[in-house]
Write a structure and sequence with these properties.
The chain has one helix and no strands. It has one helix at residues 2-105.
Length: 131
């Protein structure tokens, strides 16, 4: 009977050892699972913060873009106004140059000049009558 009980005791002891090993592995796995769950929760919080920050950045970007476009339109108007002023000065300057050229082409009148419809005097003057 001892011969039959000894192998069973040995098998029982082996099973108890395996059960203890399995229990320890189970505890380790449970501990790892708890750590992973805590890590996942932490990552979820960080992700939510990143999403919130991204939303704030997106809103800031939109605000900056609107301000930029408004300023750009203002600068465009200022530039066009300045260009129109320069264009006006250039056109006025060109008109003055054209007027000066026209004035230079016209004959200058002085006290010795005659109107164009009066013929120039002849060198020989005929006197009527005898002396």
């Amino acid at each position: 009977m001892l011969k039959r009980v000894d192998p069973l005791r040995k098998e029982l002891k082996d099973l108890e050892t395996k059960a203890e090993d399995t229990r320890q592995k189970g505890e380790e796995i449970t501990k790892i699972i708890a750590e992973l769950e805590a890590s996942i929760a932490k990552y979820k919080e960080e992700y939510a913060m990143v999403i919130s920050d991204a939303s704030v950045i997106k809103n800031d970007l939109s605000t900056v873009e609107k301000k930029f476009l408004l300023r750009l339109r203002h600068l465009e108007k200022s530039l066009l106004t300045a260009l129109n002023e320069v264009k006006g000065r250039i056109l006025d300057n060109n008109r003055e140059k054209i007027q000066i050229k026209k004035t230079n082409k016209m004959p200058i009148e002085n006290s010795n000049s005659r109107p164009s419809d009066v013929p120039p005097p002849t060198s020989a003057v005929k006197l009527s009558g005898t002396i």
